[in-house]
Every structure is written in structure tokens, then in C-alpha cells.
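#structure-requests
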Amino acid sequence: MFNKILVANRGEIALRILRTCKEMGIKTVAVYSTADKDSLHVRFADEAVCIGPAASADSYLKIPNILAAAEITNADAIHPGYGFLSENAKFSKICQEHNIKFIGATPEQIEGMGDKATAKATMIKAGVPCVPGSEGIITDVKKALKAAKEIGYPVMLKATAGGGGKGMRVVWKEEDFEEALTKAQKEAGAAFGNEGMYMEKFIEEPRHIEIQIAGDQYGTVCHLSERDCSIQRRHQKLVEETPSPFMNKTLRKKMGAAAIKAAKAVNYEGVGTVEFLVDKHKNFYFMEMNTRIQVEHTITEEVIDYDLIKEQILIAAGEKISGINYEPIRHAIQCRINAEDPWNDWRPSPGRITEYHEPGGIGVRLDTHVYAGYTIPPYYDSMVSKLICVAKTREEAIKKMERALDEYIVEGVKTTIPFHQKLMKNEDFKKGEFTTKFLEQWDFKA
């Protein structure tokens, strides 16, 4: 087992990792920027090293500074948390070269899953369902029509140089294909100077469902059930829950098996997540694989009583995993509390917290690094905390979350607490009837 772990991160995840290390009897090193000198992870680590000024590029992303901190403190392992350098193949490789264990994926695994084209090719070869599409750019209308028929309508036409929704068309039936292609090409040409188009299966009423996986150094991989992350804004998750209200045992078994195939295809070591898009017919398609711990790992821990940070450390130290695939026995919901103003276009709201009261009680967990008097810096992610509620049923978990949100007081800055309070009362959310388009269709300001 490791003697000392340096946590190359900040905020609540740094504090979360420190706690598990202490419970395992492992000494800890915190690194911090000048803006984070008063953060709790600095206070509670055994040692702390300043690695640079406020800007991430000069501190938390500065590999030489982090390596120097590890060397002067004699740390024999580095835990990168999530974000920053957690999926940086170069950092993983440099740690290897300096005989410091990177608690995460190998450089090869990170590179293999980081490139989307390579990842998709790997998944297709492994037999993991991927979104079907055209082979390269559409050059011939007749061939494209044939491909669309094979893929199955509806299909989505996309500009190869696309962005912002320009040059995109959904085609629901064959007779509309040619006209839609012509219009999309003209729009793409006008917007990007490039009329190149490709085609994918259009996912109807998509849900974003991910499978938590763990793999050891000996080829054993297990899955730890799913999380539904469909409540999101501009691809940023706001609320996560497990089990998914959309899921059933048959689908969980199929998706779990596909996630295990995906992990085995790259000889995955550590904990990670295989993310899928699932349509209204319960067809699922590989999106990407995250080779790190996730922000929402907390809810999985709560429903299966399993410390995922501890598992990461044990795997990195060469321990074998049990290889058991878990079924959730309770229901958990996580609300991300950010220093943002939802009623003002989600504008960031950094500043000093003047008053602070945390919710509590049975089944309430709060992962945070803030306190009364703490100043939220403007340089990083705006997350204040993660509020997790767990109960026997989804209905009870929602009621518990409503109560916890009512108790939660953060003054001095704007937060997303009022948004979550409104969401918990939304009838469609309570019935589990939502997709990734939920926020586009719900006027929560009304």
C-alpha cells in the first residue's frame, strides 16, 4: 500500500479523497494555488504545498510544479481527482517515468478513449453498440439514401465543419431526404465555407445514462449499476440519480454487459464510466468512456455502500476486485449546487459566503469545501457543493431532497438552490418523464 498520496486537485473532490486516505492510514499532501490557501483541503491534509498563482494553467495544470511537490514531500502516488489532469495521458506517463503511481488509467488507455474516432472504432470491434452513421462524408445522394435506409429513419444530417446547430437537419422519411440534404449543405456552406455533410441515426427522446465500472490489473472488470444524468444544461449535468427511473433489470443487464465489454477492450485499470445515449425504445449507443472518477460517483456509493475512492486506491496498489456486478438497493439523487444565478442566464456568482448552514438528517450527505466566511474564487468551476439524498424509494428521495434544500442556507452569493427546489416539485420530473432536452422545454422561470 502507498505511504503517501498527493492529491492533484482542489475543492470538494480533494477533500473527499483526503478523507478516504486518512481512513486507510495513508499520509496526504494537498497542493493549492494562491487563491485556494484558505480551502478546507489545505487545512486537513498532513502537508500542503503551494504550486502557483490563481490561474489553473499556472498551478493545477502545471505538471512540473505538481511533480516537484510530489518529490519534495516523498509522495509515492498521485490522485488526480476529476477535471484538470485526470485524463491527461502525458501526465500519467510522466508519473510512470518518475516512479510515482498515477491513481487512474494508463497513458495508453487515456489516449485510446480520448480520441473519439479511435474510441468508436474500438467499441465497434468489441461489439458495443454505437450510433450508426455514414462512412465518411456524403458524396453521392443515391448511396446516402441507401445508407439512410440501412441505418433506419429518422436520421440526422450534420455538417463536418459544424457547430451551433448550423447545417443540421433531422430527416423523418425517405421522400424528404434530398431536399433536407440540399438545404443543410447550403446552410453549412454559408456558415463555414464547407458543404461537407455526414449522417447519423437520430436518437429520439434521448436519455444520458452511464454505467460505473471498475477493472483491476488482472483483467477482471465489474459494473456497479447505472446513473441517469439526463437533467443537464448545455451538456453540463445538474442532477444525477440512481437507479434511473427509465431503467429495468433487462436493460441494466444489457448495458452493464456492454460497459464491461468496453472496459475489457482497452484492458481498463481503475474506476471509470461508460456513457450511453438511450432512446425512447430503450436502444442504447456508446457515447464515450471517462477514465477517471466522476463528479456523481457519490450516488453510486450511497445505493450500494461502496467507497469508490478506496477502490481506486486499492486497484492502483495492485489489489484484486471482487468482480461482482451490483444491483442498487436504494434510490439516491444528487443536486449540484453551483455559485450561479439561474434567473440571470446562469451567470457565475463568485464572492464571500456571509452565512452558511448545512442540511442534515438521515440519508442526507453533503460533499463541500466551503464554510461561512469562505470566498468562492472566480478562477475555477463554480461548484459550491454536491447535495446527495438517499432513501428506499425515488419518491422518498425526492421528498428528502426537498426538505434538505429548504434547510440549506448559502448567503452572500447567488446559488442554484432555488432552481433545484423548483425542479423537485416539477410533475414531469417527479414522474421520471424527462430527457436531455428537459431544460429546453421547461420554463422554470415561469
